C-alpha cells in the first residue's frame, strides 16, 4: 500500500489553514502520483474498495460533484449524491422546521453508521448569504460525525479547490518560492461568495509565494483571513501585499487568478453590512469597476504568467475569450486536478 494511504486517517478536511505545509506537500505528492497512475491507466481501485462517501450538495456543481464521484469510483468505492430537496434538509437547531428538516446532529450520526465519510457543499442562498453560516454548518457535521467530514466549498473556504490550484502551479512553474501570485478581483454581476479568493490567498502564502491581493476599495476579504495570510508569511516566508490597481498587481506576475466576489457592503458579515444581502447594491458597486477584466493587455504586463480560475468563468466580464482560451491559460489542467487532489485527500483520510 502506498505511504500516503491512511496517513491522516479520520481527520476532517474543513480548511487548509490547520494543516501544516509539510502535510499539504504530502497530499500534493500523492495527487501527482495518482494523476500519473490515471494517465497511464494503472489501477488504484484497492485503495478505498467498498468505502462509501455521502455527498450533500446544497448548491449545484459540475467540477466538484463529478470529480468526487469519479474519484471514488476509481479508488474502488462509491459516492452517494444527496440533494437536500430529496431528503429532510439538514438544519442547524435554529433553522428546524417540522417535517421539512432534520437536525444536523441526527443526520451526521445516521450517516456515520452507514459509510466512511461525509462531504458537504453549502454557500450563497442556502446560507441566506449570512457569512460564516455555511462553514458553521460543516463544522456542526464534523462535531457529531465520527467519520471524516470534507468541505466541498462553503462561504468561507474552498480547500478542495486550493489543492487543485497548487498542483497546477507546481506542474507549470515547478516551484512556489520566488514566484509572484496575484489574486485579483474581476468584474461580474450577481452575488458571489468569498471562499475562493480567501482560500487562494491562504494557500499561496502558506506555500511561501509572493502574494499580491488586488481589489477595488470596498471589495476586501474578511479581516481575519488577511491576518492569517500575514501570519503565514511570517512563518513560511514570501510576502503579502494589497493594492487597488489590477494593472500594478499584474506587473511581473508568474500566476494571475482574476475572480469575482461580492463587495462586503452588500453582505451581512463580521464587517457590519446590511441585515439582508443587498443584490442591487452589489450590482451597483461591481459596475463601477467593469474595467477590471483580464484581457491580453493585462496579461502582457506579467512575466509570462499562467492564467487560473476555479470556473465557471464569466466570459466577457471576468476574462476575455482570448485569454481563457489562449496559451497562458491553465484552467482546464487546474479543473482536471480536482479529480486527483481529491483522490489524494480521500485516500489519506478515509
Overview of the molecule:
By secondary structure, the chain is of the alpha/beta class. It folds into 2 domains: 21-156 and 338-349, Aspartate/ornithine carbamoyltransferase (Rossmann fold); 161-335, Aspartate/ornithine carbamoyltransferase (Rossmann fold), CATH 3.40.50. The protein has helices at 21-39, 63-74, 104-112, 133-144, 159-173, 195-206, 223-236, 246-250, 279-287, 296-299, 321-324, 331-349; strands at residues 52-57, 78-82, 89-91, 101-103, 117-121, 149-151, 180-185, 210-214, 239-243, 255-259, 306-307. The protein is globular, with a radius of gyration of 20 Å. The mean pLDDT is 97.
**Beta-strand percentage range:** 5-15%
Shape: globular
The first-to-last residue Cα distance is 14 Å
Identify the CATH class of the largest domain: Alpha Beta
Low-confidence stretches: none
The CATH architecture of the largest domain is 3-Layer(aba) Sandwich
Overview in brief:
It is globular and about 55 Å long. It is an alpha/beta fold.
Summarize the topology.
Layout: H1 21-39, E1 52-57, H2 63-74, E2 78-82, E3 89-91, E4 101-103, H3 104-112, E5 117-121, H4 133-144, E6 149-151, H5 159-173, E7 180-185, H6 195-206, E8 210-214, H7 223-236, E9 239-243, H8 246-250, E10 255-259, H9 279-287, H10 296-299, E11 306-307, H11 321-324, H12 331-349
Parallel strand pairs: 1-2, 1-5, 3-4, 5-6, 7-8, 7-10, 8-9, 10-11
Helix pairs in contact: 1-12, 2-12, 3-4, 5-6, 5-12, 6-7
Amino acid at each position: 500500500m502506498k505511504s500516503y494511504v491512511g496517513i491522516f486517517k479520520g481527520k476532517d478536511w474543513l480548511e487548509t489553514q490547520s494543516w501544516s505545509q509539510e502535510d499539504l506537500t504530502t497530499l500534493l505528492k500523492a495527487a501527482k502520483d495518482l494523476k500519473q497512475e490515471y494517465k497511464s491507466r494503472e489501477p488504484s481501485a484497492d485503495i478505498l474498495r467498498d468505502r462509501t462517501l455521502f455527498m450533500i450538495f446544497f448548491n449545484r456543481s459540475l467540477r466538484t460533484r463529478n470529480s468526487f464521484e469519479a474519484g471514488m469510483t476509481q479508488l474502488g468505492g462509491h459516492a452517494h449524491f444527496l440533494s437536500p430537496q430529496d431528503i429532510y434538509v439538514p438544519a442547524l437547531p435554529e433553522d428546524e422546521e417540522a417535517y421539512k428538516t432534520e437536525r444536523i446532529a441526527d443526520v451526521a450520526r445516521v450517516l456515520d453508521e452507514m459509510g466512511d465519510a461525509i462531504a458537504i457543499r453549502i454557500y450563497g442562498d442556502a446560507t441566506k448569504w449570512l457569512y460564516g453560516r455555511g462553514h458553521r454548518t460543516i463544522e456542526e457535521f464534523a462535531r457529531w460525525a465520527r467519520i471524516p467530514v470534507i468541505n466541498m466549498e462553503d462561504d468561507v473556504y474552498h480547500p478542495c479547490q486550493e489543492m487543485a490550484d497548487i498542483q497546477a502551479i507546481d506542474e507549470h512553474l515547478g516551484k512556489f518560492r520566488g514566484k509572484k501570485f496575484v489574486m485579483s478581483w474581476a468584474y461580474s454581476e450577481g452575488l458571489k461568495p468569498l471562499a475562493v479568493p480567501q482560500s487562494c490567498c491562504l494557500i499561496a502564502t502558506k506555500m511561501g509565494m509572493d502574494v499580491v491581493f488586488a481589489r477595488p476599495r470596498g471589495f476586501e476579504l474578511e479581516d481575519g483571513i488577511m491576518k492569517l495570510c500575514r501570519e503565514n508569511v511570517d512563518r513560511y516566508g514570501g510576502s503579502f501585499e494589497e493594492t487597488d490597481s489590477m494593472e500594478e498587481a499584474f506587473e511581473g506576475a508568474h500566476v494571475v487568478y482574476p475572480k469575482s466576489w461580492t463587495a462586503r457592503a452588500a453582505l451581512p458579515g463580521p464587517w457590519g453590512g446590511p441585515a439582508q444581502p443587498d443584490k442591487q447594491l452589489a450590482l451597483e458597486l461591481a459596475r463601477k469597476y467593469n474595467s477590471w477584466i483580464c484581457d491580453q493587455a493585462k496579461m502582457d504586463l506579467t512575466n509570462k504568467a499562467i492564467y487560473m480560475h476555479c470556473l465557471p468563468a464569466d466570459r466577457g466580464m471576468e476574462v476575455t475569450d482570448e485569454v481563457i482560451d489562449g496559451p497562458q491559460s491553465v484552467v482546464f489542467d487546474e479543473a482536471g486536478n480536482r479529480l486527483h487532489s481529491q483522490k489524494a485527500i480521500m485516500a489519506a483520510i478515509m
